[in-house]
Amino acid sequence: MALAFLLSSKPFDQAAAWAALPADQRATIKSQYSSAGISIIVSAFGSTEEPTTQGVDPTSTANTMAQFVLNNGLDGIDVDYEDLDAMNAKNGAAEAWLTTFTQTLRTQLPKGQFILTHARQ
After folding, report:
1. What is the dihedral of CA 77, 47, 86, 109, to 10 degrees?
2. What is the Cα–Cα distance from 76 to 39, expressed in whole angstroms?
3. Is the distance from CB of 73 to CB of 27 less than 8 angstroms?
4. How far apart are CA 112 and CA 92, in angstroms?
5. 3-state DSSP assignment of residue 82
6. What residues contact residue 48 under an 8 Å CB cut-off, 6+ apart?
7. Are 4 and 15 a contacting pair, CB within 8 Å?
8. What superkingdom does the record give (predicted)?
């Protein structure tokens, strides 16, 4: 199950609602989902945000988002990168941004312990 959306500035919608729950309630819900074989992840960005175009720092953003996953007992993160202007520029900036962001996330959320996915565009 993916909670939408975690933006570079703060969580919104389901991600914000999850973070606002008391820690014991999050743990209970997480346990129930885990018992049913369901992981809970947060979805980052979406069409609401264009991080490369907006000049968002990929390293600090990845560190902040990884900390959100850790602080809120989540199983991982889905990167829904939709900065189409940056991708369509075909100058390598989007790819470089996304590579740095993903590598930093993986450092903070180790493979085998956390889920890290990218939504297809």
Report:
1. -10
2. 8
3. yes
4. 30
5. coil
6. 5, 7, 12
7. yes
8. Eukaryota
Q: Which of 116, 100, 107, 4 is nearest to 49 (CA)?
A: 4
Q: Take residue 35 and report the two structure tokens written for it.
A: 């018992």
Cα–Cα distance between 121 and 107 in angstroms, integer? Answer: 24
* pTM score, whole prediction: 0.95
Is 87 in contact with 97 (CB distance < 8 Å)?
no
Say how far apart CA 40 and CA 84 lie, in whole Å: 27
What element of type H or E holds 80? strand 76-81
Token code pair at residue 18: 């999850």
